[in-house]
UniProtKB/TrEMBL annotation:
Residues annotated as domain Aldehyde dehydrogenase: 35-450
Protein's UniProt keywords contain NAD: yes
Pfam short name (any one): Aldedh
Protein name: Aldehyde dehydrogenase
Gene3D superfamilies (alphabetical): Aldehyde Dehydrogenase, Chain A, domain 1, Aldehyde Dehydrogenase, Chain A, domain 2
Organism: Hyphococcus luteus
InterPro entries reported in the protein's UniProt record: Ald_DH/histidinol_DH, Ald_DH_C, Ald_DH_CS_GLU, Ald_DH_N, Aldehyde_DH_dom, Aldehyde_DH_NAD(P)
Family the UniProt entry places it in: Belongs to the aldehyde dehydrogenase family.
Catalytic residue list: E227, C261
Keyword Transmembrane helix in record: no
Lineage: Bacteria, Pseudomonadati, Pseudomonadota, Alphaproteobacteria, Parvularculales
Protein keywords: NAD, Oxidoreductase
PROSITE patterns: ALDEHYDE_DEHYDR_GLU (PS00687)
Gene Ontology CC, one term: cytoplasm
GO molecular function, one term: aldehyde dehydrogenase (NAD+) activity
């Protein structure tokens, strides 16, 4: 089957757009010729991902470091290399089971038929990845899509050009481009990508761009998974040990300098413990990063634009009278774009820092009177991508879990639910649509096709017209046994 010519950007204006159209047509044709890769072929593709990730580890570390200005090597190893390889290995271990047809019980009145759900590849999958974890967020969805038997095109962010080129070369060294390839280019290529009639499109990025992606994909009725952002709260309960919570929050907020979709965006602390919380977070931050200007451990802000945006969030809150607590040397600011952890104590409710996703090491700390107040505060805003709760009271924890809706939750730590590959990862409401990781990822990129195997002893013909008194008798019998 050829690509849908009416919707394919065949007359792309830029090199990126032309390359996209060529690769998409090629993959569509390859899919039509071989729509159901075997278990062995899929395992071989997962091995290719593992090999290219491990073989290019140093090149990826260097490329990401160049893109950020400074990115801690260990952060790249943990959050890009290890996470990707462990996701691929877990997928390999489970793939045979996931590929199996799944039984579905057949109701009594339909016996002796059998029913099954048979996973089937969708075809050609598009992946648009952001700059913040540019390797992991390109390869983790690719792992799921390839495991499900699809062909994959990846469009990395233009803000990480070194990584994009390194990834493109690494993928080309292992994969035939009819199976998996990278398309690079700017926003025009991104737009053309979203207008391409993929069989599924996974986008990771901001909520604002996510809306445009969904709009463009809707024109082709391309199903989308949108992995977006939002304001993820960290709630410290009365029953929490403040030092333990503070260490976790400081780490969650300073990893990758807060440029993490699931970083704690703000803290809700018991009213009488706000000062103790701020002091404990400051102490934890100083211990992890005693000198942010000289250490390679602390990651830079990705661009001057994002740096200026974060500074202006702080300045607006300062101008409006909020207390600002900056942890680290202001010598660090330029040229490395290292922004110290900056806490904003009790900013006005309508300050910009409380209205938009922060996505950097700026941390509002708000006093809260009770668990109910914390729940009400969270529920006033859009549904967050992540929620963190710290404490020892099971009753307070369960109340928060029951009465708030967020993409995912880690209790008594930050970030870790994302690394647990057997848990689905995704947002809800404005923080995203759909999910992946582990079996959920396999299902996302599969058509779970219901198949009803009728029996040759079936009596369904008894319900065919012409309708008679006998038909009515059969209907009333069936209604009795339902
Ligand atoms: P972004 O939305 O600016 O860009 C994401 C990708 O979309 C990039 O590849 C970019 O080139 C492309 N793009 C930009 N404009 C486009 C358009 N009009 N049409 C098609 N593609 C376009 O996001 P970002 O700044 O790269 O990443 C930060 C955001 O991503 C934050 O909001 C963060 O929370 C979110 N994020 C979410 C997750 C998650 O898994 N839920 C993970 C990481 C980041």
């Amino acid at each position: 089957m050829a690509a849908d010519a009416a919707h394919t950007p065949s007359e792309g204006r830029t090199d990126g757009e032309r390359e996209l159209a060529r690769l998409f047509a090629l993959q569509k044709e390859a899919y039509a010729a071989a729509p159901f890769p075997s278990y062995e072929e899929r395992i071989a593709n997962l091995n290719r991902i593992i090999r290219l990730t491990e073989a290019n580890e140093d090149a990826f570390i260097e490329a990401i470091n160049a893109d950020f200005g400074n990115r801690a090597r260990q952060e790249t190893v943990i959050a890009e290399i290890v996470v990707t390889v462990s996701g691929a290995k877990l997928t390999k271990k489970n793939l045979k089971k996931w590929m199996q047809p799944r039984g579905a019980p057949t109701p009594l009145h339909m016996l002796p038929a059998r029913s099954r759900i048979e996973p089937q590849p969708l075809g050609v999958v598009g992946i648009i990845s952001p700059w913040n974890y540019p390797l992991q967020l390109a390869l983790a969805p690719a792992i799921a899509a390839l495991a499900a038997g699809n062909r994959v095109l990846i469009k990395p962010s233009e803000l990480t050009p070194h990584l994009a080129e390194t990834l493109k070369a690494a993928i080309a060294s292992e994969f035939d481009e009819s199976v998996c390839a990278v398309v690079t280019g700017g926003v025009e290529t991104g737009q053309a990508f979203t207008e391409t009639p993929f069989d599924h499109l996974l986008f990771t990025g901001s909520t604002a761009v996510g809306k445009r992606v969904a709009e463009a994909a809707a024109k082709n009725l391309t199903p989308v998974t949108l992995e977006l952002g939002g304001k993820s709260p960290a709630i410290i309960d009365e029953s929490a040990d403040i030092e333990t919570a503070a260490r976790s929050i400081a780490h969650g907020k300073m990893l990758n300098a807060g440029q993490t979709c699931v970083a704690p965006d703000y803290v809700l602390a018991p009213r009488d413990k706000v000062d103790a919380t701020v002091d404990a977070i400051a102490a934890a931050a100083r211990k992890m990063f005693p000198a942010i200007d000289t250490t390679h451990d602390y990651t830079s802000i990705i661009s001057d634009r994002h740096f200026a945006r974060l500074k202006s969030l702080v300045e607006e809150a300062r101008d409006r009278g909020a207390k600002i607590v900056e942890i680290g040397s202001s010598n660090a600011l330029y040229p490395q774009r290292k922004l110290p952890l900056t806490m904003i104590v009790d900013p006005p409710a309508d300050a910009a820092v409380m209205k938009e996703e922060i996505f950097g090491p700026v941390l509002p700390v708000l006093p809260i009177g009770s668990t109910d107040e914390a729940i009400a505060y969270v529920n006033k805003g859009d549904r967050p991508l992540a929620l963190y709760w710290y404490g020892e009271s099971d009753a307070a924890r369960d109340k928060v879990l029951e009465k708030t809706v967020s993409g995912g939750v880690t209790v008594n730590d930050a970030l870790w639910h994302v690394a647990q590959e057997n848990l689905p990862f995704g947002g809800v409401g404005k923080s995203g649509i759909g999910a992946y990781h582990g079996e959920t990822g396999f299902n996302t990129f599969s058509h779970l096709k219901p198949v009803f195997y009728q029996s040759r002893f079936a009596s369904s013909a008894l319900l065919h017209p012409p309708y008679t008194a006998k038909t009515d008798k059969i209907i009333s019998f069936v209604r009795k046994i339902l």
